[in-house]
Amino acid sequence: GGRQLLAFLGERGLLPGTTDDNSVFIYDCSAAEKKSQEHKGEDGQPVDQGSDTVLASTFSKSGSYFVLTDDSKRLILFRTNPWQCLSVRTVVRRCTALTFTASEERILVADKSGDVYSFSVLEPHGGGRLELGHLSMLLDVAVSPDDRFVLTADRDEKIRVSWAAAPHSIESFCLGHTEFVSRIFVVPNHPELLLSSSGDRTLRLWDYRSGRELHCCPLTSLQEPAEPWSDKRFAVSRITYWSQEDCVALSCDGLPVVYIFQLDAAQRQLVPRQLLTFQHRVWDAAFEEGHGLWVLQDCREDPLVLYRPVGGQWQSVPESAELKRVSAHVRMNWAMLEGCAGVDSGFSSLYKAACDNMTTYLKKKEERLQQQLEKKRRRAPPPGPSGPTKRMKPGELARGCSS
């Protein structure tokens, strides 16, 4: 995110982000056109115009297109070879996730209100069309490799599988997470399988058409208890996958680690392989076919680390010429990254509030009793010189004096 986009690391790694002369493509979102109507709410009154911060971005499957959305409610589409901005369109609400269809003909946009809109790639200036909606905030959206299904993940622990041709028709729900679902990923070379992560700190494997959970792996079981972040709540911010070796890598919101798993598709399970630890927070991670695993971390002197499998273990490759070249570009644009990358993704505000019902009930009961006592005190008549005065019937005073 940020006022600028440094498109060197994404779903497909480095190649889509570099230009023909091996320079890095940079786009300044604050310079993009803005439309006056996008700054008015439903009541027609002006609303917050945003800071041009990028909220979500993704490459198409082939890497031919790249799209981003920002907090000024713009959807900006690029061609990547050569890099060119094709269109700037307006979305209804601020978005949380984006994906291209497998055909690369449409962009699916999920927003905070729980809706998914589609935008045409072939008609880059066409408006959006409402496809489906949840009653809860959407956090991720994905499509099956054959474009038959749209998968959506929400704050209320649900993953919904809908028919793309008729989104009102629901194929299944994948239910089991106990906190918000932060990321979902359809495995490209095993298209019947889905990976999901959550604020409950688990990675799960699903047969998504039936909604059946195949395997659940608690991430906390893979870390050392002595680590300073071992008892911290966290959610996975990126699921990246290497088809060549059926390898899954997870980066987590604000943690200095990357989890590596092997997907055993035949046994329908995830096998933990390695926990990569770093001295600094990991901002992002992505596999690049033929190169390895790129990790972006919060360190200006050493912003990128490249890992490759050696003898069954992932090891860093410090002497790579490609690594040095791209790291130099990152350092040159560090001011942009430093101001935005690593900022909390917003997951911390999505956890359920812990509530002790009995304590809350007793506290409210005590407050009600105190209010009732206060009302009684206000209604009582003021006391006389020697306490409350008794009210006498007419003639009582005369009879008392005659005696």
TrEMBL record:
Main location (coarse class): nucleus
Gene3D superfamilies: YVTN repeat-like/Quinoprotein amine dehydrogenase
Gene Ontology cellular-component terms listed: cytosol; nucleus; tRNA methyltransferase complex
Keyword Repeat found: yes
Alphabetical list of SUPFAM superfamilies matching this protein: WD40 repeat-like
InterPro entries per UniProt: Trm82, WD40/YVTN_repeat-like_dom_sf, WD40_repeat_dom_sf, WD40_rpt
WD-type repeats, residues: 174-216
Keywords recorded for this protein, A-Z: Acetylation, Chromosome, DNA damage, Nucleus, Repeat, tRNA processing, WD repeat
Source species, domain of life: Eukaryota
SMART domains documented for this protein: WD40
GO biological processes: DNA damage response; RNA (guanine-N7)-methylation; tRNA modification
Region (Disordered): 366-403
Subcellular localization: Nucleus
Record protein name field: Uncharacterized protein
Organism: Muntiacus reevesi (Reeves' muntjac)
